[in-house]
Amino acid sequence: MSSSEASAAEPEYTIDELARESRVPSRTIRFYQSKGVLMAPVLRGRVAYYGPKHLERLELIAQLQDRGLKIDTIRELAARLDKGEIDVADWLGLDAQLRAPWAEDRPRTVTEAQLIELAGAKRPGLVADLVRTGGVERHGDVFLVRSPALLQVAMKLEGAGVDLEVATKAADILRRHLAKAAKDLTDHFLSHAGRILEGEYEGDLGRAVEALRPLGLDAVRIVFAQEMEKALAALRDSGRAARLPTRKKKKIR
């Protein structure tokens, strides 16, 4: 069968038929055409005809919009698809990896009883202290715990004698510096994306990002441990450690 015969065998749709088939209103189809995200139809006489590729593109546009992409971004992506610069499946795989969580820790809304259970400890004034230090927000009769995992870390530190406010501020310091590190690393890998697509991950940036997730977390743990060793060694060598109290003084009654 010749290419012209194959083309003739493909289904064709008027704009109203395409709207029924795709469940996308005719006016929206025209809007997509005006924005350059949907390729032009074939004109025969005064009638425009659409084919399977238009139907596929409408399905892709819906997928991308469901992922939160704006029309201008979709247009840029569509242009690269039409030029053969990227593959749809590869791009969707990369997008899925970029959306995948790096941690299971998510904000939770809990009752006071659940908050105490989550904290793993109960003492007078605990709930008020958690709200005051900012790790927990009160909303009427319930509480928003921004990071249940960090709350548990703070409570374990308190159990070891570290004041809750000191522990919370330590988490803020980590977040501030790691937020900058995360942005810098994202920019770094983005600027060298072409060099990532070599070897085992050639042509598949999504797989490279998937591999980066556990390895990146391992790298943070290793580098942080090394830097903490250096900082504590410097504290020891400076003599400042000798001036630190080793245990809390008992109050004289």
Structure, explained:
Helix content is 62%, strand content 7%. It folds into two domains: 3-86, Multidrug-efflux Transporter Regulator, Chain: A, Domain 2 (Orthogonal Bundle); 108-238, no CATH class. It is elongated and about 90 Å long. Helix 6 (88-99) runs parallel beside helix 12 and helix 9 (148-159) packs across helix 10 (164-191). It has twelve helices and five strands. The strands form two sheets. The chain has a three-stranded antiparallel β-sheet. A two-stranded antiparallel ribbon has the order 1-2. The protein is mostly helical. The longest helix has 34 residues, at 205-238. The chain has helices spanning 3-9, 15-22, 26-35, 52-66, 71-82, 88-99, 112-119, 126-132, 148-159, 164-191, 193-196, 205-238; strands spanning 42-44, 47-49, 108-110, 136-139, 142-145.
SSE blueprint:
Layout (H helix, E strand, L loop, with lengths): L2 H7 L5 H8 L3 H10 L6 E3 L2 E3 L2 H15 L4 H12 L5 H12 L8 E3 L1 H8 L6 H7 L3 E4 L2 E4 L2 H12 L4 H28 L1 H4 L8 H34 L15
Antiparallel strand pairs: 1-2, 3-5, 4-5
Q: What summary fits the major beta sheet? A: 3 strands, antiparallel
Low-confidence stretches: none
Q: How do the helices and strands follow one another from N- to C-terminus?
A: HHHEEHHHEHHEEHHHH
Task: Tell me the helix content.
Answer: 55-70%
State the shape. elongated
Main structural class: mainly alpha
Figure out the total of helices: 12
How far apart are the termini?
102 Å
Strands, count: 5
Radius of gyration: 29 Å
Give the mean pLDDT.
Answer: 86
Strand order of the largest sheet: 3-5-4
Beta-strand content bin = 5-15%
The domain tally reads: 2
